[in-house]
Amino acid sequence: TEIYTLSLHDALPILRIGLLDHHPQGGPVAPECTAAARSAATLLESLGHTVEPAWPAALEDTALISRFGALWSTNMGVSLRRFEEQLGRPLAEDEFEPTNRIQAEYAKHISAVDYALALAGIAQFRRALQSWWADGWDLLLTPTVAELPLPLGTIANNPDHPMDAMERSGQFIPFTPPFNMSGQPAINVPVEWTDGGLPVGVQLAAAYGREDLLLCVAGQLELAKPWAQRKPNV
């Protein structure tokens, strides 16, 4: 396999880009976020690339959340144990965030077999996701988030309902976690802005090792629609 490194000054080949402008598992997406992805698709087409409605079917796997939850909870359980070992005492209630503590408690009910099955499921997901790029696609274009930027404090710990923050976060960022899990490179590009002056980003994801492609396409978009000097006017 030959690997090519591109620079911003090289002429990019025509890329085949898939567009996912909705929640892959049926959740809500703000109209402005959908519009930003579609606008970016139009801009990419004007730059000579091919954009089609297409995305990896693996993103529609609803079992992914429970697998991720098993791994994340176990990680919280390990973190809590290590902190307490280093301090030589149990952590007080106010020394470990409620969201993390409840997950650490949940991890006590996860068996080694449960954890191994979650790991295997994530590995299977990575292979299924990456196969989409192997089928001839260069990039995937999505909204970066499912809502406009949230006011500070919207996602906060709630001791009475410790998982509220995690659930609210999941509603806000359904498009980015899959690539955290797969390990593929992805980039956020703030190509659109609301009438009120808030940036609305789009995400581009590439195959393993193709950070160069992401940076070059992001550079193309920035040259076509500069944003470096823009500031939110809110």
Percentage of residues in DSSP E strands: 5-15%
- Give the uncertain stretches in residue-range form: none
Order of helices and strands: EHEHHHEHHEEH
- Could you say which overall geometry the principal axes of the C-alpha atoms support? globular
Helix-strand makeup class: alpha/beta
pLDDT averaged residue by residue: 92
Please list the strands of the largest sheet in the order they lie side by side: 2-1-3-5-4
Based on CA atoms alone, the radius of gyration comes out at 20 Å
Got a strand count?
Answer: 5
Brief sketch in words of this structure:
It is built from seven helices and five strands. It has 234 residues and is an alpha/beta fold.
Descriptors:
234 residues; alpha/beta; 44% helix
Question: What does the model show?
Answer:
The protein is α/β, with parallel strands linked by helices and 234 residues long. Helix content is 44%, strand content 12%. β4 and β5 form a beta hairpin.
Chart the SSEs and their pairings:
Elements: E1 16-19, H1 31-46, E2 50-53, H2 64-87, H3 98-107, H4 112-134, E3 139-143, H5 164-172, H6 177-182, E4 186-193, E5 199-206, H7 211-224
Parallel strand pairs: 1-2, 1-3
Antiparallel strand pairs: 3-5, 4-5
Helix pairs in contact: 2-3, 2-4
